[in-house]
Design brief:
The structure is a homodimer. By secondary structure, chain A is α+β, with helices and mostly antiparallel strands. Chain A has 13 helices and 23 strands. In chain A, helix 5 packs parallel to helix 7 (204-215). The longest helix of chain A is centred in the N-terminal third of the chain and has 22 residues, at 38-59. The first copy, chain A, starts with 22 loop residues before the first strand and ends with a strand. Mean pLDDT of chain A is 94; it is low at 1-15. Strand 14 of chain A pairs antiparallel with strand 20 of chain B, so a sheet runs across the interface.
Chain lengths: 636, 636
């Protein structure tokens, strides 16, 4: 943040765009989270994780790469990948989003230093990628399929927009625009004298649409749409892995590299928000249906295959061998958010919430210092979080997701004074309504540990609020308005709206039944036949060996009718509700000792013996001593 | 085969080596298979497959690469991989093994042409690898971890030995020896003035030991042992993938690239046969136990992971996503064979037989023209055999396995006149006993379709014969000697020996109960819980959609007590026994249509309806119209 241009408060985001989205986001600068679930994690993120990541960026040469490109240092390019710049940009975006809550002088210095290094490394023509400098300069734009130049550009632009939004400064935005201008001049249809092409790793599509929204410059939107339109026409020689096997409007399944595909879908949704094109929207609906009905883990994680970090076949959802990259879950949240903005249906926030709690959050240790790249749903104790990776996409991605989390809580209808509440947590928001009024909304709740959400609205005149009844709430929620109970339960499937003349201080109480519940899986998922998973509210649970000593978790059997005991344990894993139950353990008989297969009938197991099972939230696994972990348990 | 040196008959293999192996192989030239199971496939292999593969070798430039190295053609190196030479060598080995049964002039020409091209490409110092010629000559031996030079050398030597054994010619053997000499001079301990190193892809260990056995030159054995000893000491920077993560004697689990590890184990077994070293033997026993008890598919296939074509964790055996490379199964057969030679225990032939029928044979189409690289145990109809691969290791490997199959049938005790019969098929063998006599053994059987094996032995004087009672024969086999039934059933776990003074024409009848049987899997294999596989004798069965129309195979449930009907269907898939049964189909209810997960209890399925299931041998799958296939079926 340059000293001559200090931030004076939240910068209002333009809302004149996105004519085809039903909802408008409530910017994160207008939302405050003050709960005991997210806020301690977000505090660690901005106060410790970001600084630690910055040190990694320096120590691994990722910032030196910019200095090298600017001619300030004489070193070889550092790092294994041509997309190392993107880690710096993602960190910068995370740091920018954290500024309103943490205007720490040290953090400001890191941000401004980084921006200076980036700006100095930009080429006169606007091009900016530290890998393709000096001896590799002739290789620029020669391999769109594999080399991630457009991907890196997208992250630069997103960081620039974030920095502009929270500081008002256009220092980095100018850099991003210059590069975007260069890209717009370079890529396009041959008849326009440009080079045909599409990114091998999607990301820039989202960035360009947001740059259009931020600047009003139509070229950026057109460029994003061009990149989407040009995919699947053999321009870069990509395949399913790159979602380049067929035109986007004909894609019906989530395929290939999972992060790529959800980033693409996020970009498509952004284009649809501006254009309303039915064919693109239809493709999104098909892809969304495929992902959620055939390829989604119970955690919300996606991309089951190690091989290619990829989506697999329908119903291919192994547990111990699930890949479920943290970045893919983050991309899924971004996509879900955009789908929800398009039409306001709560099904998207349902998936977004599940994914945030159970597929994004496990990617970070409770102390904020180590990360999962892969998130298996079962383990033998050998999968542990790491402080950094050679391919370091996940750590700064988790950081920017946590930093920007308040931005995922509320939306407002584009025409009516109607606010949608997507997520629940203690806190407040100041929502600017389409008619210019501001509604002050206060959430008082212990969600996700408790199921009661008390919402106070300070606004006068016509106003409506939509409270999501989550899809896990199959028996329905109860709602009390100013103390008066509505006689009918509210069921999942739509936000609940209250439209009347509001008095300041009106209170709504939403009561979500937070009982432990067992979940079954579609019978075509081969590994989950006869098994159950345990959930409570939005949280997926798992079983760790350290809480369940003396037997092998694979040998436990849960009784579907058994009653689970809940207890809040303040001292454990940052404070969690544990779930316990009486169950049975039936280890394999000794006859199995020396073999894998036996002719039926076989004495498969010894007599069952009683066991006591303890479950913890899945997001908190692998924060204690290593041991076996399981989500899906045999059931009878 | 040079015209001046025509083969005059089987060349006797030296038997003075391998003091620490209990058994000696009966060379394939002394064995004849004349059954209706293997023989038609072997005839297609030698009469059609080998010629087709030769065309592929020419068309893909693999033989041109040798011409290029010799300066005969001016082309760039063709093919994707630095190990393309090995495909030529493996084909040559297969062609050589086929010569005794198929001395076709065209085949002889192909062999002799190929040998000439290879010989002409050899460097003056003995080095021979067409990838590392001209501009890449300076890269020779610079990357043992990844570049497969020693692997290719091993295949050259094996081809040379095969060619020498069946023709008596030393034309290719001289080439192989010169390269082996070059390797012996190059690699070794620093104190000897040599370069430390070990192969990144094992293979040459087996070849060098066999070269020692063939030539009597101790240096080759020492070199093989050196390569095994030097592994796991950080010489080439390999990891688990290369079995270079720890010294061989400390390895306890099959890890990394599956083909590599079973080739390594085969080489270790060869060294143990010569040295008898207990520590090496101990490692083999541990590795064997790990593979067969924790990492073996019911088909005998190994290497479950796509990622790295690798072994996974213990009990990690997915079905639709099994990798189970054809070459890995072939390597497993080679290892099992060697283990059996070491101590004569039939457990090794049990695994070898299962693997041959159910993991090697599925790699080849019934018409001998297309191949599987991967062999999944379930499929949605999209996995189909291909005529060739960019990485074409599997096709010539299948060809050499089929061509050399007779060599896996019999062994003879190194001291006593005692013959072990490992495999059963109509045919005969002339076995040279340690005392110089020859026993003529005739098998009369319809195995594996029928379970009766009639063995006639023409020999006089002391003689013993061991007939393996396969491990699937849990209820035991019956034996009749010259018409007299032994009152007790013979159980699996040891060969059955008959030691007495034999009269020419003595007859033994072995009766193996070939009933269909259901097999259960160790409960820690996540995907097979509650499921069964179907076997009959050594053959694994599977279900194909084409035989089971009108329902989804994933929805079928087999009754464990149901009676299976057997019928031999001559017209089907080259003649097979099909197995049929009445079962139930319970498709998922409509409630599952739009979701993957539901809170328990859920109406998981509609009322079951009756269904008629038809199973075929797994080796024959994917030879008709594409459709879903399953090996493991839900059972109640």
């Amino acid at each position: 943040m340059p000293e001559q241009d200090p931030p004076t408060g939240p910068v209002v985001v333009e809302t004149t765009h996105s004519p085809h989205a039903r909802l408008r986001p409530v910017p994160l600068t207008d939302v405050r989270i003050a709960d005991r679930f997210w806020e301690p994690r977000r505090a660690i993120n901005r106060e410790q994780t970001l600084a630690a990541q910055y040190r990694h960026l320096e120590e691994t040469g990722r910032i030196d790469n910019f200095r090298r490109a600017a001619g300030k240092v004489d070193k070889p390019f550092q790092g294994l990948y041509p997309f190392n710049d993107s880690d710096v940009y993602k960190w910068l975006e995370a740091a920018a989003w954290s500024l309103p809550e943490y205007p720490d002088p040290g953090m400001l210095r890191m941000i401004e230093t980084t921006i200076s290094e980036i700006a100095d490394a930009q080429e006169p023509d606007g091009y900016l990628n530290t890998y393709f400098t000096f001896e590799r300069a002739p290789e620029r734009w020669t391999n769109l399929k594999d080399k991630h130049e457009l991907y890196c550009a997208g992250h630069l632009i997103q960081a620039a927009i974030a920095h502009h939004r929270v500081t008002g400064s256009d220092r980095l935005l100018c850099v991003g625009r210059r590069f975007a201008d260069h890209i717009c001049e370079t890529f396009g249809r041959e008849v326009e004298g440009k080079r045909p092409g599409t990114p091998g790793h999607e990301e820039i599509e989202m960035a360009l649409v947001e740059l259009y929204r931020t600047t009003g410059d139509q070229r950026y939107f057109d460029q994003a749409r061009y990149f989407i339109d040009s995919r699947g026409h053999g321009l870069i020689g990509g395949g399913e892995y790159h979602q380049d096997h067929r035109p986007v409007r004909e894609q019906e399944r989530m395929t290939g590299h999972a992060v790529r595909h959800v980033y693409l879908c996020s970009g498509i949704a952004d284009v649809v928000a501006e254009s309303g094109e039915p064919a693109l929207r239809g493709a999104l609906d098909n892809l969304w249906a495929n992902m959620t009905r055939k390829q989604l883990y119970v955690s919300g994680g996606i991309g089951s295959r190690h091989d290619g970090e990829a989506f697999g076949r329908d119903y291919e959802l192994p547990n111990e061998r699930s890949y479920t990259e943290t970045c893919a879950a983050i991309g899924s949240v971004m996509w879900s958010w955009r789908m929800g903005q398009l039409d306001g249906h709560p099904r998207y926030a349902d998936v977004m919430e599940t994914t945030l709690y159970n597929a994004v959050l496990p990617g970070l240790s409770l102390d904020g210092g180590t990360y999962f790249y892969e998130n298996p749903l079962a383990d033998d104790g050998t999968h542990r979080r790491q402080p950094w990776f050679g391919c370091a996409c996940c750590p700064p991605n988790v950081a920017r997701m946590l930093a920007s989390l308040p931005g995922y809580f509320y939306s407002v209808d584009k025409e009516k004074p109607l606010v949608h509440v997507h997520l629940y947590a203690e806190g407040e928001a100041f929502v600017t309504l389409p008619d210019g009024r501001t509604a002050h909304i206060i959430q008082h709740t212990d969600y996700p540990w408790g199921g009661i959400v008390e919402v106070t609205v300070n606004v006068e005149g016509p106003f409506g609020i939509g409270l999501r009844v989550p899809d896990w709430c199959e028996e329905g929620a109860r709602i009390l308005i100013n103390g008066n109970a509505d006689p009918e339960p509210y069921l999942p499937g739509d936000y609940q709206f209250e439209n009347e003349a509001w008095r300041p201080g009106a209170r709504i109480m939403l009561i979500l039944p937070l009982r432990p519940r067992l979940v079954e899986c579609h019978p075509h998922v081969a590994e989950n036949t006869g098994k159950v998973a345990l959930m409570r509210g939005p949280l997926l649970y798992c079983f760790e060996e350290t809480d369940n000593p003396g037997f092998d978790l694979r040998d436990a059997t849960v009784n579907r009718a058994a009653v689970w005991r809940e207890s809040y344990r303040k001292e454990l894993l940052g404070g969690i509700v544990t779930l316990t139950v009486d169950a049975e353990v039936t280890p394999p008989s000794e006859a199995w000792e020396d073999r894998l297969y036996r002719t039926v009938p076989v004495a498969g197991a010894l007599e069952p013996r009683p066991a006591f099972l303890t479950a913890i939230p899945y997001y908190a696994w692998a924060n204690r001593e290593p041991g076996r972990m399981a989500v899906w348990m045999r059931a009878r």
